[in-house]
Input
Amino acid sequence: MDVNSSIAENFSLTRGGPFYRLVSIFGFVKSERYQVVKRALLGIVLCWFPLLVLTVTQGLVVGTKVRVPFLLDYAVHVRFLIALPILVLAESAIDGRWRTIVLEFLRSGLVDQNNTASYESIIEKVTRLRDSAPPELAMLGLAYLAPLLLGRTDLLMGGITNWHAVHAGELSMAGWWFRVVSAPLFRFLLLRWLWRMFLWTLFIWSVSRIKLHLVATHADLAAGLGFLSEGQKAYSPIVFAGGAVIAGSVLNAIRYEGQTLSSLKIPMIAYGVLAVVVLVVPLLSVAPVLLKTKRKALRDYGGLVTKHNQLFEAKWIDEIGPERESILGNQDPSSLSSLGNSFAVVRQMRTVPIDKPTLVTLALAAALPMVLVLLLVTPANAVVHAVLKMLG
Output
């Protein structure tokens, strides 16, 4: 039976927090598509357009004044014209997917009427954390301190003159804007997604601790929690955005630093693996309860199968009991098969509710920008030869 909850229906991990309230002053927080586009355009206007104007002012947009003028810096354009808009545009779709999953716990009966109050309490706890100021202030501070803590974090070419500096060690006006506004804002947007992922993980973990009506024989092979995998698949645009940033850096390194794809394959592969692993981690939070459910079901169904099979054998094989019936058309073989199938489903049950399509989707999202880099830096005749070789 469906359980209605206005708290669950209004669940959101993006519509809240100090930054959200700040942006709301300018009317950029409505969920309609055109409002989302306006927010993405605002990001471009703040992060990319001033760099264009300032490099034009100082003659660093094109030409030979520096080795890497602004318009030929692949990394900066990919970061602010592709990745940044995706980070903003993805909010509405991903938040909608999260809300659907939150409601599914109620609609599917996993959370019944007796546990609704506990479920709503978890939602309210996560919402309070979403609206808390200290985490966002810490993210903002980290966005500015990252270069000091981690060293070279921006995708700049070391030892190569570029639009960031007029002279060695002297930042250009665009370089200052990049350092003070553009790069920190981009890092802040990335960190906010990591914070939301933490909140989502906390939500899933907390829900797994209340009494859920899990069914080990569920066809999704995850006791009814298979739908959680869809929430992680929704992250594919964010994975693609991160891959695009890496790809822009790789293009710069190949074009201006003499690097090769072979020398850069480790960071590219590492990103793809890390992106998939990070997005599987939230689902590990329900592994203990699924493992417990599977173990109990194996004992219960195992005992039931044993008892049923003993009775079946006694009746039809050993011919113990009343006058023997005809096995043709009898329901006993059917029940034997059904019970055996149920036990097989329990044995196949996964303890982490992630499916192959989700893993493939995330891996493709991470790999696609790298494939585009491969096509851009590989001579056309080599690409044609490779394709013909695969077809032949």
Notes: The CA atoms of residues 53 and 182 lie 14 Å apart. The longest strand covers residues 165-167. The mean pLDDT is 84. Residues 6-286+352-391 form one domain.
